[in-house]
Specification:
Layout (H helix, E strand, L loop, with lengths): L8 H21 L3 H22 L7 H30 L3 H32 L6 E3 L6 H10 L6 H20 L3 E3 L3 H20 L14 H13 L1
Antiparallel strand pairs: 1-2
Keywords: Membrane, Transmembrane, Transmembrane helix
GO molecular function: phosphotransferase activity, for other substituted phosphate groups
InterPro entries: CDP-OH_P_trans, CDP-OH_PTrfase_TM_dom
């Protein structure tokens, strides 16, 4: 029996990252935002190393390389496009402004990843090897930025925390599609970022300053009050 796709060690980490994000979404739906943020961070770690692992196989066919490019971007749409926006929405980024920002963020992530696929396919055909520079902010950065923002709930008010989530979606989404050169981090930098995220997630698991809105609380008065105040100010 033959199956479509590739199933060797070069893509396993990408599959694991996608599964982690899907599990994280289920946890977010049930109000376990700590677990959701952990799953997002873990997906980011998987994405940080899947390319390095794939390049260790020197005899990959042209089809396998192209499959890896498409697979990585499709999984990134879910892991770092839909998933973070989903978490932010459940945390209270709602109303007209919130919906606009959630849609804007997801759209920017898809545009960026589609453009990356085109550039990477063209580069593989002409140069090969590993690209040393990003164009704009990579979508994986949200696996670092959202946990750091989530951690800020311990030092700011609930209203400020919700405002930060709105700003995060808007600014990061814009940086996804802005064309500016950004040098790819080396292994030491990646390991340092992983350590920072691990510590941050550890702090998040250790404490929660205030009650976060549960997605089942459709008429949560705290959420409604904060959203109304933001909309009045805008």
């Amino acid at each position: 029996m033959k199956f479509l796709g590739v199933y060797d060690y070069t893509v396993i980490l990408t599959y694991v990252g996608l599964i982690s994000s899907m599990i994280g979404m289920t946890q977010a739906i049930h109000g376990d935002y700590k677990a959701a943020v952990f799953c997002l961070a873990f997906s980011g770690v998987c994405d940080a190393f899947d390319g390095r692992i794939a390049r260790t196989k020197k005899d990959r066919t042209h089809r396998e390389k192209n499959f890896g490019i498409q697979l990585d971007s499709l999984c990134d749409v879910v892991c770092f496009g839909l998933f973070p926006a989903f978490i932010c929405y459940l945390l209270g980024v709602r109303g007209t402004l919130g919906l606009i920002l959630v849609c804007f963020y997801c759209l920017c992530a898809v545009i960026r990843l589609s453009f990356f696929n085109v550039l990477e396919t063209e580069r593989q055909q002409s140069e090969g090897g590993c690209n040393k520079t990003y164009h704009g902010l990579p979508v994986t950065s949200m696996a670092f930025l959202l946990p750091m923002t989530f951690w800020l709930q311990f030092v700011v008010s609930q209203l400020t925390f919700l405002v930060l989530l709105h700003v995060l979606l808007g600014v990061v989404g814009l940086l996804f599609i802005l064309d500016f050169p950004l040098k790819k981090p080396g292994l030491k930098t990646i390991l340092a970022l992983v350590a920072v995220v691990a510590i941050t997630v550890g702090i998040i698991y250790a404490r929660t300053r205030f009650r976060l809105p549960h997605p089942a609380d459709e008429s949560n008065p705290v959420v409604e009050e904060i959203i109304d105040e933001i909309q009045e100010r805008t």
